[in-house]
Each structure stands twice: as structure tokens, then as C-alpha cells.
Amino acid sequence: SSEREASGMIRQPSKPSRRDLYVLVSSIVLGVLGIAVIGLAASWSHVIGIVVGVGAVVKGCIGAYFEIRGVVRKKGEKDSWSPHKARSGAAKAKKAVYIIFDILLWFFVVAFLLVHLLGRNPGWTTFPAECTTGVAGGQVLGCTRVAPSPQRNDGMFPPEYPNSVSQVMTAAQDWATSQPRTSVLYSDPQTGFLHLRAVSFLWGFPDDMAIQATCISGGDVTVYAQSQLRVGLGDFDVNLNRVKSFFQHLNTTMPSLPQQTCQ
Question: Is the pLDDT of residue 15 over 90?
């Protein structure tokens, strides 16, 4: 056996360096975080987040495999395969690309996790009394409210229609279904309340939208809407445009429906 060992036929573990252990542990952690990102992104129907999570899992598995392989390599075998131990010019260039990709992947994974941790569901079951986020120094930057105590409504007022609450609820849900990355979190047909979550394309920032259909005197129905961000302050008018899109949909849809007395 000593002859076979001397000839390199038997793999002998080499003593891992601190750097080897760091890379191994970081690869495993990246893979685990990637699994978490996949689960969270899937729950929000966020495709970019799922892709980043899969990339983190693949990168973590590959990194862990190479580090384990380096520790148990044959005695005397060179480990030039490792991107962390480059020697030639070409290998150093590949190492630089590998490190940049690694840093970017870690950045995106941590960013996605922070967005999910900070962007918790407010759990609305009734229409909110005011904008609760996106307000700084008395200035509303990330919320649009078309309802009593309006905020950043751009001249919009709650519309009125000669229809029922159920008709408005159906039209609102149809609009939500047509919107990308938008989900219904809570719906109460009896009270005419609807809570939606919309997620941005790239970073997966979540916004909340509340819709309230209420009967008024004369048998008509009026509709309130509020859309606000969960994370940050400014929204580049995303919530304002969302409310405008919703009311445009109602103004197009409601006149084509048979009139019903709201009661």
C-alpha cells in the first residue's frame, strides 16, 4: 500500500488552509441563501429573483465541489483547476471574472433578501385611513391616495358609477389579473374591499394597493384607491400611474355593464 501511496494512486486529503475553509463555507452559505431567495421570489411571482436564486445555488454547489475536490486531491496533484488559485495570465483573468461574478451574485442575493425582510405585508383588511409609508418631512413621495384625505392624487377624485359593489369588485379583480406581478392578498365582496400586492420587475420591490367600493346616496357606487410602497420613500410616480391605470380601466369597463342599484 505504501508503494501505491507513493505513486499517487490513492487520494490523500491535504490540510485545508483558512482560505479553503472560507471559500467552502461561503459557497455553502450562498447556496442556502439562494434556496431562500427562490422560495421568497416564487411566493411573489418574481422571475428575476428566481433566476438569481438559482444562480446562487448553482454557484454555491460548484464552489463547494471544487474546494472539497481540492482538499482530497491526489498527493502531489496540482490544483490549477481552482479559480481561486490561478497562476498563468489566462487563469488570472478567469479568476478576476469569477470574483466579479461572485461579488455581484452576493450583492443581488443580499439585496433581494433585504427587500423581502423589510417589505412585510401590512395585512390590510379594511381601507386605510391615510398613507402609512412613502412620507418624509410632511412630503408624500411614495403614496397616491384618491379618497377622503387625498394625497398626491394629481387632480383625481373618487369616481361614481350607476352600478353595484359586486360589479366594481369584478372589474377590479379583472384589472389586477391583467397587471404584471400583481396578486390579490385579501378580498371581501361583502364590504367591497380589495388588497393587492404589485412587485417591480428588476428588484422585486413590493407595493400595496387598496381598493374600496362603497354605496352612496342615489343608488350609485363610489370607488376609493390607495397605492403605496413598502420599502423606501420615492417611487418615481409608479403608484400614481398605477391608480391612474385602475381608474382608466373602470371608466372604460363600468359604462358597458348593466346598471344596478347599489345597496
Answer: no
In terms of Cα–Cα distance, which of 51, 33, 31 is closest to 204?
Answer: 51
User: What pTM was computed for the model?
Assistant: 0.82
pLDDT, tens digit (0-9, with 9 covering 90-100), for 133-154 = 888 777 888 999 999 999 999 9
HEC sequence for 33-49: HHHHHHHHHHHCCCHHH
Task: Supply 20's cell numbers.
Answer: 479553503
Residue type at position 171? A
- Per residue in 182-226, pLDDT (tens digit) is 999 999 999 999 999 999 998 899 999 999 999 999 999 999 999
* Beta bridge mates, 146: 225
DSSP 126-171: S--SS--SSEETTEESSEEEESSS-BS-TT----EESS-HHHHHHH
Task: Indicate the pairing of strand 182-188 with strand 193-199.
Answer: antiparallel
> Residue 91 has which C-alpha cell?
487563469
Of 65, 74, 76, which Cα lies nearest the Cα of 20?
Answer: 65
pLDDT of residue 75: 45
Sign, CA dihedral 17-104-99-27, equals positive
**Phi, psi dihedral angles at 44 (to 5 degrees):** -105, 5
DSSP E strands, the chain: 135-136, 139-140, 143-146, 160-161, 182-188, 193-199, 206-215, 221-229
Residue 254 neighbours by CB distance under 10 Å: 19
Cell triple for 62 = 460548484
Residue 22: closest CA among 61, 58, 67, 66: 67
